User: Which sequence fits this backbone?
């Protein structure tokens, strides 16, 4: 009887994104999200379900007597709805499925310029127990200082998919994270340094600095995300509190699943900009509206296919020298979207390559591949163009290693211009650029230290 119901129910499910709910009577036993509702629900009734999903899900399948679903316009919206419903109903099977591993939560801080952070459930509990202030555990991973929690969203069962979802959201609504120090904080540090140096009160008016944007940019250093367009310029004083607060309100509405109200807010903002002849802002809002109504889930779908596992490791390589002298190479690592500095490595080039960077890169990669005790990379990043990319690919092929390679091409100001390689890896665009930026910084630091030692 139950098998007949299952076949009938699956036949009724649409081939579209959404959230499915396994129930017993009115009680929700399990909540999940799907790229295709019909395909996803059907996968629960295959012979290998015990192997693929474990005993908790098998028990849930014995107990359920009804399947319900909510259709969504995109996988991204399904992911957010799944988190909201799990938080509201707290189904037992969802809590047990990860075998007590901590889920991830999105936290929006309560500050003049709020930050958006991903925090583990256990750390979030510690923060709340500490009167909503930053714990020493989290302080060691950021430059935040104390903060209070404004909004919390989650739990999100899939960490990799959450990171990709935030990338999609951030392209529509650029925001500040824990790597962005506000312009006012930077100016205050400059003021404090001057006070400590002079030991006398000095005139240093922050509001006065704000009046001159170009002068302000000289004082305030842009964060990495500002350089690639994912921070609105909190770090450089390019956005006012009121304007940024509107961005945060829009993000909150999106996470709450209130897309209809969000669209109305944006339409109202666009009309207001146009009325005040702020046509550039009106066009930006128009583009956001278009993106919102045509959300591209390609990145999210690729994340499910190529890197849903924890520990996706990117290794980036760069060469530093001064006209062919004191040539060094470095390897930096980004794992789970964060720099893993404990795995950074330095290489003093043994065979003098002169100004031949590709030759030096070849030596570095051969030496790195000789360390079988180091974790294998999922993706390799190299600074340069096709020549640098091809030399890395040739060495990997000679060593019978099947690791994809991408290269970061720079413009005349040494800013990222293009990523060469299979476009499917652009799902990791931010991590690729972070790894590349870190390898350049780390290489220059090592080369400078070596050169100064030689000169002394």
Assistant:
């Amino acid at each position: 009887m139950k098998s007949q119901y299952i076949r009938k129910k699956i036949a009724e499910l649409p081939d579209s994104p959404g959230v499915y709910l396994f129930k017993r009577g009115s009680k929700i036993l399990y909540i999940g999200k799907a790229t295709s509702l019909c395909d996803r629900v059907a996968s629960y009734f295959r012979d290998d379900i015990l192997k693929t999903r474990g005993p908790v899900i098998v028990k849930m399948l014995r107990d359920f007597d009804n399947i319900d679903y909510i259709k969504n316009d995109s996988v991204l919206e399904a992911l957010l709805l799944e988190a909201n419903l799990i938080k509201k109903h707290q189904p037992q099977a969802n809590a047990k499925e990860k075998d007590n591993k901590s889920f991830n939560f999105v936290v929006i801080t309560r500050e003049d310029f709020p930050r958006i952070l991903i925090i583990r459930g256990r750390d979030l509990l510690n923060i709340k127990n500490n009167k909503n202030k930053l714990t020493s555990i989290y302080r060691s991973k950021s430059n935040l200082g104390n903060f209070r929690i404004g909004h919390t969203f989650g739990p999100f069962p899939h960490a990799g998919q959450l990171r990709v979802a935030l990338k999609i959201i951030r392209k529509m609504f650029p925001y500040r994270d824990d790597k962005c120090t506000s312009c006012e904080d930077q100016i205050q540090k400059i003021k404090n340094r001057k006070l400590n140096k002079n030991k006398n009160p000095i005139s240093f008016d922050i509001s006065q600095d704000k009046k001159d944007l170009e002068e302000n940019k000289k004082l305030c250093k842009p964060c990495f995300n500002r350089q690639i367009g994912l921070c609105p310029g909190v770090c450089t004083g390019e956005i006012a509190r009121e304007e940024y607060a509107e961005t945060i309100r829009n993000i909150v509405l999106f996470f709450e699943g209130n897309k209809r109200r969000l669209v109305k807010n944006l339409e109202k903002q666009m009309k207001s900009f146009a009325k005040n002849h702020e046509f550039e802002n009106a066009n930006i809002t128009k583009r956001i509206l278009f993106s919102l109504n045509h959300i591209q889930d390609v990145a999210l779908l690729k994340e499910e296919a190529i890197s849903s596992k924890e520990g996706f490791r990117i290794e980036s390589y760069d060469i530093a020298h001064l006209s062919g002298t004191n040539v060094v190479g470095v390897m930096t690592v980004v794992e789970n979207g964060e720099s893993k500095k404990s795995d950074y490595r330095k290489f003093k080039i043994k065979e003098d390559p002169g100004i031949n960077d590709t030759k030096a890169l070849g030596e570095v990669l051969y030496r790195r591949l000789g360390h079988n005790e180091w974790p294998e990379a999922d993706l390799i990043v190299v600074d340069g163009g096709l020549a640098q990319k091809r030399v890395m690919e040739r060495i990997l092929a000679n060593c019978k290693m099947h690791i994809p390679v991408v290269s970061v091409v720079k413009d005349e100001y040494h800013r990222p211009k293009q990523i060469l390689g299979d476009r499917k890896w652009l799902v990791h665009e931010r991590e690729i650029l972070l790894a590349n930026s870190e390898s350049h910084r780390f290489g220059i630091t090592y080369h400078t230290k070596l050169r100064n030692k030689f000169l002394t």
